[in-house]
């Protein structure tokens, strides 16, 4: 192959030198004729799709081509010999004394060496990749706002770049799978995303207490004997008078003349159960930190120097801090810190005569990555703690059965179960007909004096209408004068819903018109959320609450 190319270049160079003494027009015509003859000589499989030009000025160059395409390569010097490392990948055709045409036949890597008459060699490393221009064109048409790169490799394709919506990633992969059996997805999602993080903190604490202690005091005239290992008899019993600590459960006494016997028993069995369920939900923009706190602050005293104290406030309640970022493939990276805390007087300290309460808190701080809609347990705790205490007089408390009168026994068992779950989701704004009618407190109101003082109601349903009718067959109750044709439940499209959600309408002049009595408002029984939030109007008489409470 190298000798054939050398022969063709030699023929072209000899003809050019031969016609150098003729006119330029004649030389150009003869050169074109020879080039056409040379290109058709023994070349039947070359069909280049596109032709580009590249000037080789360095001794080592790199060139990337697509299969079934061609590339013009030009030197500043005359090309004497062209040597191809693998002629199954690249084919070379001479065009002039310093220009050749490279045609890509198959995918792969090869090298072409162009040698000049003065023995200089220009090496071109050529990488030929598959033809994915059809797929690239389809992706550019379907996703005009995206920046995608397609790189075919063997029987697979690598798709990289950026899209503006997470659902576009799946669509890009589906289109690419129509051309290649294996798709390597490296597409990233960019732009502003709204992420909603739902966090659940569930805790159950069970405490079991068993306590038994017996203290007694015996008086013999002016003499007495006191046993108080349980602390039921207070200090200061030096005169024979009974001084108890007021924490006994049973007290008895036997008195006869100057002699007396008093007994105090603390026998207690206690079971405590505490449940904590916090379900905070926070919405934030991709990459921006967000926090949520439902609780409060309490003051604490801290030393301020020179014998002075200062007041600081400490938060307690349910708090959630997180930062979310959207990765490629629609995955969400989360850095989250949920915290549950409450005031615990059992952990208080006394500072200059003032009791400063402590806090009991549960929190976790970690970073995870998961798909939208998936739920992950960030942390869990299963703790069992048992404390036993026996206090008694030496030797006497060890006597079987009778030793119970000289000792105090106490046992505390505590079981804690804790689970923290997080679920990220992509969020968006609701349409006007999707907004819930009403909200917390919209469906109830403050009672009248009669309802508050005579009936003891602290909250009554918020209704409107002239009179109250009995429930119909479906169990719904409506005011008199409101038609029941086609009652509209919540959630229907706006063409079937009450205009403006039952709120006062605003005409073109900006004047708000009141709600009329013909609006199809539906009112359920007491204790059932109404499908539409009624609007209380001062111009409509209040319905008697006695007609509601059945």
Description:
By secondary structure, this protein is mostly beta strands. 11% of the residues lie in helices and 46% in strands. The protein has helices spanning 2-18, 24-40, 133-142, 166-176, 449-453; strands spanning 53-56, 60-66, 70-75, 81-84, 90-96, 99-104, 108-115, 121-129, 147-153, 156-163, 182-189, 194-220, 223-227, 250-256, 259-278, 281-285, 290-305, 308-326, 331-351, 354-363, 366-371, 376-392, 407-426, 444-445, 460-461, 505-506, 512-513. Strands 12, 13, 14, 15, 16, 22 and 23 form a seven-stranded antiparallel β-sheet that branches. Strands 17, 18, 19, 20 and 21 form a five-stranded antiparallel β-sheet that branches. Strands 1-3-6-5 form a four-stranded mixed β-sheet. A hairpin with a 2-residue loop joins strand 9 and strand 10 (156-163). The longest helix is centred in the N-terminal third of the chain and has 17 residues, at 2-18. The chain is elongated and about 140 Å long. Residues 1-16, 18-50 and 465-550 have low confidence and may be disordered.
Tell me about the largest β-sheet.
7 strands, antiparallel
Number of continuous helical runs: 5
State Rg. Answer: 45 Å
What percentage of amino acids are in beta strands? over 45%
Unreliable runs, pLDDT <50, ≥5 residues? Answer: 1-16, 18-50, 465-550
State the end-to-end CA separation.
104 Å
Q: Which secondary-structure class do the elements indicate?
A: mainly beta
Which of globular, elongated, flat, extended, rod-shaped describes the shape?
elongated
Report mean pLDDT, rounded to a whole number: 75
* Helical coverage, percent range: 10-25%
Number of strands: 27
């Amino acid at each position: 192959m190298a000798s054939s190319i050398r022969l063709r270049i030699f023929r072209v160079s000899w003809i050019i030198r031969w016609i150098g003494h003729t006119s330029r027009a004649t030389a150009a015509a003869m050169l074109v004729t020879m080039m056409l003859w040379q290109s058709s000589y023994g070349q039947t499989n070359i069909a280049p799709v596109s032709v580009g030009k590249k000037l080789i000025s360095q001794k080592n160059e790199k060139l990337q081509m697509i299969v079934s395409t061609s590339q013009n390569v030009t030197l500043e010097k005359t090309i004497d010999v062209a040597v191809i490392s693998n002629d199954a990948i690249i084919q070379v055709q001479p065009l002039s004394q310093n220009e050749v045409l490279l045609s890509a036949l198959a995918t792969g890597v090869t090298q072409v060496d162009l040698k000049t008459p003065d023995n200089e060699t220009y090496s071109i490393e050529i990488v030929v990749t598959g033809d994915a221009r059809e797929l690239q064109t389809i992706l550019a048409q379907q996703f005009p706002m995206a920046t995608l790169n397609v790189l075919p490799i063997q029987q697979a394709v690598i798709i990289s770049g950026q899209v503006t919506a997470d659902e576009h990633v799946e669509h890009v992969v589906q289109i690419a799978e129509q051309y290649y059996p294996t798709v390597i997805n490296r597409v990233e999602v960019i732009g502003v995303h709204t992420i909603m993080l739902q966090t659940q903190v569930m805790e159950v604490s069970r405490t079991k207490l068993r306590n038994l202690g017996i203290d007694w005091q015996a008086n013999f005239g002016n003499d007495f004997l006191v046993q108080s290992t349980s602390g039921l008899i207070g200090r200061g019993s030096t005169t024979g008078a009974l001084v108890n600590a007021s924490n006994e459960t049973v007290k008895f006494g036997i008195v006869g003349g100057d002699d007396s016997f008093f007994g105090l028993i603390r026998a207690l069995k206690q079971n405590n159960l505490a449940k904590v369920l916090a379900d905070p939900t926070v919405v934030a923009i991709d990459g921006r930190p967000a926090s949520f706190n439902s609780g409060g602050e309490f003051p604490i005293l801290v030393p301020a120097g020179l014998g002075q104290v200062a007041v600081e406030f400490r938060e307690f309640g349910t708090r959630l801090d997180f930062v979310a970022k959207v990765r490629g493939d629609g995955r969400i990276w989360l850095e989250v810190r949920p915290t549950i805390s409450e005031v615990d007087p059992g952990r208080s300290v006394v500072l200059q005569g003032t009791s400063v309460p402590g806090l009991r808190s549960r929190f976790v701080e970690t970073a995870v990555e998961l798909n939208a809609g998936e739920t992950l347990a960030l942390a869990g705790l299963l703790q069992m703690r048992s404390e036993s205490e026996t206090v008694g007089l030496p030797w006497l408390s060890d006597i079987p059965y009778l030793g119970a009168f000289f000792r105090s026994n106490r046992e505390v068992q505590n079981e804690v179960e804790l689970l923290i779950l997080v679920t990220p989701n992509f969020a968006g704004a609701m349409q006007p007909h999707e907004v819930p009618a009403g909200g917390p407190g919209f469906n109830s109101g403050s009672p009248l004096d009669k309802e508050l003082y005579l009936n003891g109601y602290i909250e009554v349903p918020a209704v409107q209408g002239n009179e109250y009718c009995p429930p119909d067959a479906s169990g719904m109750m409506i005011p008199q004068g409101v038609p029941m044709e086609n009652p509209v439940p919540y959630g229907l499209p706006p063409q079937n819903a009450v205009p403006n959600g039952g709120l006062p309408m605003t005409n073109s002049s900006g004047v708000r018109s009141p709600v009329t009595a013909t609006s199809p408002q539906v009112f359920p029984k007491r204790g059932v959320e109404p499908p539409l939030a009624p609007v209380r109007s001062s111009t409509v008489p209040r319905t008697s609450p006695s007609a509601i409470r059945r």
